Amino acid sequence: MPSELQLQVSPEIAANESLLYENVAKLVRVSTKLVHKVVILKRSIDARQKAIKVNLKVLVYLIDEKYTEQKMELPIYKNVSNKQEVIIVGAGPAGLFAALQLIELGLKPIVIERGKDVRGRRRDLKAINVDHIVNEDSNYCFGEGGAGTYSDGKLYTRSKKRGDVDRILKLLVGFGATPDILVEAHPHIGTNKLPQIIQDIRDKIIECGGKVLFETRVIDFILKNNEIQGVVTQNGDTIAANKLILATGHSARDIFELLDRKKILIEAKPFAIGVRAEHPQELIDKIQYSCDYRGDNLPPAAYSIVKQVNGRGIYSFCMCPGGVIAPCATSPGEVVTNGWSPSKRDQATANSGIVVELKMEDFKPFAKFGALAGMEFQKSIEQKAWHLAGQTQKVPAQRMIDFTQNKVSASIPKTSYVPGTTSVEMGQVFPGFLSQIMREGFKEFGKAMRGYMTNDSILHAPESRTSSPVRIPRNNETLEHSQIKGLYPCGEGSGFAGGIISAAIDGEKCALKIAESLKISSL
C-alpha cells in the first residue's frame, strides 16, 4: 500500500521532481532508487514566515507497489432525446451543470441563453473595450458560460460540502481542465482556457439529445394556478415545460423586474460594493513573499484581507494576480468593473475588488422600488460613474493615497483597463458613508500589508456586481419557489451561490430535486 505523507518543503524542492523524490526518500527512510512514484494530492503555499514553504500532501509508491495512472472519466451520459423536458434559463455554471446532471438522470434539458456562444461573445467584448458599445445580451456577464467564462475561472469556494466540490472539479478535468485544479488550494483555470471547456460541455449536452438555444431571451413566464407551464421568448415563441430551473446570474435585472411585475415573490438582499484596486504585481509579490524578486518557483502572489470600519466589513474580493480589469456593464449608460487572469497569471498587474458590506437600511432612498431597492441603489452608482467618466466606458479612477486624502489625482497612469480612465474624486461616485469607510479601510490595509497603500495603486470604480441584489425564495426541502410550483430558483442570481463551484453545485442540487419530484431515482 502507498504511504500518505504531509510535508513542508522549499519552493525549489516542490518545483523539482528529483529533489522532491530525494526529500520523500529521506522521510520514508529508503534509497531514492526505491521511490517509484510520488503523487501530489494537495498543494498550498505558506508565506507567513520569511522562508516561504510549500505544504504538500502526497502518496508515495515504492518500487514494489503498483501504480496505475488515474484517468478522469466522465459519467455515462444517456441519450435523452425523447425524455421529459426541463427548461433551464441561463447557460452559466449553474445552468450547464444542472443540464449535465439532468442528462445523467434521464431528463432532457432545454438550455435557453440570452447571449451568444463563447466565440460569438468575443466580438461583443471587443466592442465594449474598443468602441465603448454595450450589447445588452452579449457581454462579460451574459453569454455561454456566464460571467465566469471571461472573468477568470476561479474555482475555490467556502463550501463545506467537499464531496460536491471534488465532483465538480473532476467533471471540469473530464472536460479538459488541467488536473492541477484537483491539487491546488486555490484552483484556477484561466480566461484563456475556460471557453473551450464550456464549449465541450455544450457539445456533450447536444450530443446526448439536449438543446442549447443561444440569443434567446425569456420575456415572460407562462403560469397556470401558480404552476410553471413554460416561457415566452423575445421572438414570441413559446417553450413548454412544467419544470424550470432559473439560473440567470446576478445581473439579469430584466428577469428580476419580470418576477416583480408578475407578483412572483422576490426579496431585496444586502450585497457589497466598492472599487477595484490595481497594483504592480511585483509590489504584491514583494509584500506577500517578503522578497525583492519572486523567482520562477513561486506563483504570482495573491492577497486576502478583511477589516472592520464603523461596524462594517471591508474586504478584498475576487483577487486576480497577474490579471487585468475588465468593463462589465450590461446596459448602455452604466460603468461596471471586474477582474480576470489568464491561466499563467503572467500580466504585470494585480487587481482586486475592495468592497464594503451593505445593509438593508442603505436602500431606504429607493424604498419605492420594493424588492428591487437594492438593485436600484446599485444601478444609481453605476450610472453616476458613467456620467462622471464622460458618458463612455472609461472608468472613474484615482490614486489610492489621493483618495484617502480627498484629492483629485493630477494624473492617472495607463492601467490594464482597456477602455481607459478619467481622473475623478471617488467621493463623487459613492454615497458619503461608503467613501469614508473605504478611506479608513485603505489606511487599515496599509497597516496590515506594509507597502499596500501607495499612489502606485489605481482605484477603478465601481466594483458593484459582487452578488445578486435580490433573493428569490425557495422551499429548503424541495428547492421549488416558495409560491410557484415547478420553478426552481438557482445559483448566484437567485441568491444561493457565489462563484463557479457553488453555482455548479446548486445547479446539480436543483436537477436532483426535479428528478426526486418525478420519482426518478438519483445517482
What's the layout of helices and strands?
Elements (H helix, E strand, L loop, with lengths): L2 E7 L1 H5 L1 H12 L6 E12 L6 E10 L22 E5 L3 H12 L3 E5 L5 H14 L30 H13 L19 H14 L3 E3 L4 E7 L2 E7 L4 E3 L3 E3 L6 H9 L5 E2 L3 E9 H9 L16 E4 L2 E9 L3 E4 L9 E4 L8 E9 L15 H16 L6 E5 H5 L16 E3 L8 H17 L9 E6 L6 E2 L15 E3 L10 H18 L6
Parallel strand pairs: 4-5, 4-10, 5-6, 10-22, 18-19
Antiparallel strand pairs: 1-3, 2-3, 7-8, 8-9, 11-21, 12-17, 12-20, 13-14, 14-17, 15-16, 18-20
Helix pairs in contact: 3-6, 3-12, 5-12
List descriptors.
alpha+beta, globular, five-stranded parallel sheet, about 525 residues, about 25% strand, seven-stranded mixed sheet
Question: What's the average pLDDT?
Answer: 94
Name the structural class: alpha+beta
Rg, alpha carbons: 24 Å
Low-confidence stretches: none
Q: How many extended strands?
A: 22
The profile of the biggest β sheet is:
7 strands, mixed
Distance between the termini: 30 Å
> What best-fitting shape do the alpha-carbon axes yield?
globular
How big a fraction of the residues is strand? 15-25%
- Indicate the percent of residues in helices: 25-40%
Q: In which order are the strands of the major sheet placed?
A: 13-14-17-12-20-18-19
Report the total helices: 12
